[in-house]
Write a structure and sequence with these properties.
single chain, 97 residues, mainly alpha, elongated
Amino acid sequence: MEASWNLLKDKIDCDVKCCIPLTTRFQNTKWKKPLNDEKRNQIKSKKSLWRQYVRDKNPASWLKYTKQRNNVKKIIRNNVKDQQNAVAKQYQTNPKK
């Protein structure tokens, strides 16, 4: 019984290696909007806190992550609002922008 199980397991492993391609993580290095280094570091910090929470599932790490997530969201919203205000101020002098 054990030998037949090992034979079946080896066959499945061989077929998986043969037919199912290994994927790599998609690395998107481009930012959709230009951000300064401080904002990028905040986003990287959020990602590292998420990975830490996924590893240990600790409620303290979840709280750290949520605080950083909310902080990043506030930073991004303020950045978008500032860009929109800058375009609105230029409306009279540069209407095509």
